[in-house]
Amino acid sequence: MQGMPPSPAVGRAEFITAMRRVASSVTVVTTDGSAGRHGATVSAFSSVSADPPTVLVCLHAKSRIAAAVEANGRFCVNVLPEHSDTIADRFAGVHDGELSDRFTGIPCLGETGAPPQIAGATRFACTVDKVVQSGSHLVVFGRVETVGQGEREPLTYLDGAYHRVLPKTVQTMGAVT
Predict the structure, then answer these.
(1) Which of 5, 32, 69, 108 is the least buried, fewest Cβ under 10 Å from its Cβ?
(2) Domain that holds residue 86
(3) Beta bridge mates, 47
(4) Cα gap 6→112, rounded to integer Å
(5) Is the pLDDT of residue 177 over 60?
(6) Residue pair 72/39 in contact by the 8 Å Cβ criterion
(7) Is 105 within the bounds of a domain?
(8) What is d(CA 145, CA 136) in angstroms, rounded to the nearest whole number?
């Protein structure tokens, strides 16, 4: 509304506390090319459009994965299946002190030089369409070139822990099914 001062911004801690209540699929973004092969667990991934098929991921602007995705111009979003918490931790950097390569022992599909596609994950291989900076992150829009159907149930993250997706129990005529 005209003449109204902008509302004060929500504090960082309050925002983070609220976001911990939002469940999301656990995704690993991978890339390969002239800037090298990289992968990182990310929490912000979304469908943008079906015409043309487009997704977005949010990457910390100062991270290695953001620099590599921009330089390589390609990436793959791997939506991890429910039993993949060790893969999520690996690409979140939990084991970086023990391993020199996050991809060690992780079964991947795809051609050499293409963004690695994690076996069992639902996969969206993309070409970078647009990159927009918003706050501390880059919003990377990707034109989806290929998809891979993974396992049905994704690994989810909520309130600092991994979870499984379970169907809601349906009640019909007083009986639970």
Answers:
(1) 5
(2) 25-164
(3) 55
(4) 50
(5) no
(6) no
(7) yes
(8) 28
**37 vs 74: CA distance, rounded Å:** 11
Q: Which two tokens stand for residue 94?
A: 């939990």
Please name the residue ranges forming H helices in the chain. Answer: 12-19, 64-72, 85-91
SS3 14: helix
As a whole number of angstroms, the distance between CA 123 and CA 45 comes to 12
In eight-state DSSP terms, residue 110 is: S
Task: Say how many domains are in the chain.
Answer: 1
Answer whether residue 9 is part of any domain.
no
Across 115-153, b (16+ Cβ under 10 Å) vs e yields bbbbbbbbbbbbebbeeeeeeebbbbbbebeeebebbee
Query: Which CATH number goes with the domain that contains 32?
Result: 2.30.110.10
d(C-alpha 108, C-alpha 119), whole Å: 5
Give tens-digit pLDDT for 131-163: 999 999 999 999 999 999 998 899 999 999 999
- CA separation for the pair 130, 83 (Å, rounded): 32
Query: What's the one-letter identity of residue 58?
Result: C
Query: What proportion of the chain, given as a percentage, has pLDDT over 70?
Result: 91
Q: How far apart are CA 55 and CA 146, in angstroms?
A: 12
Residue whose pair of structure tokens reads 């098929």 in the numeric block: 53
pTM for the whole structure: 0.88
